[in-house]
Amino acid sequence: MVKVKSNKNFVAILFVVFAAFVALFPKDVFAAEEIPHYATWEEAQPVYFPDSDVTNMNEVAYAIDMCMQAGIENYKAGNMDAAYKCMQDGYYGYYEVCGFERQTMSRISGARKNEVELAYKACRQAVKKDLGLETVQAEVKNLTSMIYEDGLLLAPTTPAFEKLTGSASGGTTVTAGAFFVEAFVILLREGLEAILVIGGIIAYLVKSGNKNKLKPVYIGSIVAIGCSILAAAILSILKAQSAMIGASQEAIEGITALIAVAILFYVSNWMLNKSETETWNRYINDKVEGSVSKGSMFALGFTAFLAVFREGAEVILFYQPMLADAKEHNIGGGMIALGVIVAVAILVVVFVAIRFFSIKLPLKPFFLATSILMAFMAVAFLGSGIKELLEGDVIELWDVHIPIISDLVAKIPENDVLDMFGIYPHIETIVPQMILTAVIVILFIVAHFKNKKIKQQMKAKLEEG
After folding, report:
1. pLDDT tens digits for 144-168?
2. Please, are residues 446 and 275 in contact by the beta-carbon 8 Å criterion?
3. Stated pTM of the model
4. 322: closest CA among 232, 195, 255?
5. What is the Cα–Cα distance from 444 to 303, expressed in whole angstroms?
6. Of 67, 54, 394, the residue nearest 255 (C-alpha)
7. CA 6 from chain center: how many Å?
8. Radius of gyration of the chain (CA)
9. Whole-angstrom distance, CA of residue 244 vs CA of residue 239
10. Distance (Å, whole) CA 264 – CA 288
């Protein structure tokens, strides 16, 4: 009996020791072995394409494919963290940093860039939510098909690429003209939104008799340029240490855009409440003057700051590798400079048109139009801000179907015009935009009746006098 009891105690002691060992031992020892991959194009190029002198987008497409396939293999092995990292690296270590994103946006279309970015997001989400091997494989196949297709549009194939893939097809040779187009399209595209906002604010102040209060708007714009340069420098340094910093960049851009939405919404409503007929010019001008002197100038100056800063750092980060690419192809920076000059010239023309021609409108139509412009930009910034947060994995894609709205969203085309104004065929952006639009319409109606009441009160005062 004693022996039996002794054996039981021995077994119990062994069990306790084993349980403590499992609890305290590093858990990654028991994790599935990670399938290695090259996290960046800088690492992959010397391995896959050691003889390449320049960055070729077809070769990048192949490297991205290999990175994503490593993600699938890690998923099969049950190593979810490694699989997710592969899906991240395919975007932040390749697509975003080696010029693929930039060239797609400027030489194919901004809408195509967004489509690819959301395909990357779908791949990451399929792994993160563990949606199953078939879903992960399908999302990766969808993404890599687009990447290969775009690579063939952006550059001619190379013998090394053809040997690895067995594919040989067209592609355009990179020329000086291509760099001009890239520099021009990027600055014009990103600068137009800022010019619309700043031009509208400045025209508003001039029209309302507050020309002497333009200084905060100009200061906000100039400070934003300086902050954009500083932010770009910091992000560039951090990206050199880790490609994952790209996710933080998307988050910063998204949060900045949402702050801009709040400020633009406030400015739009503030301007709307000053819109009345020319009969009440003196009354309205007094109200505007009082409002400006009470602190609304901070909101206007901050709006100008956000409009510039929102995309400023990204534009600079686009131009840095563009100059490096031009040097790789033995093309000087002259065509890039020319593209910048032409884009700036067009932006100046747009600004002058808003600044000088809009103020010739009668008072009420002008204030109403300016308010609508600010409200429209708020809705646009909301869409683009949410998109950036989706790309930065701050928020997830909605796995829902909303009757009527989902069908309506599916009919929205993807093109550069809609993309420039933050309108995307995605329910995650459209639903919040619809809600904001409804709130704006309600406020417009309220302001209409409020102004009507003011008109009646002023008319009664005049009749009494």
Report:
1. 999 999 998 888 888 888 878 776 6
2. no
3. 0.71
4. 232
5. 21
6. 394
7. 69
8. 28
9. 7
10. 17
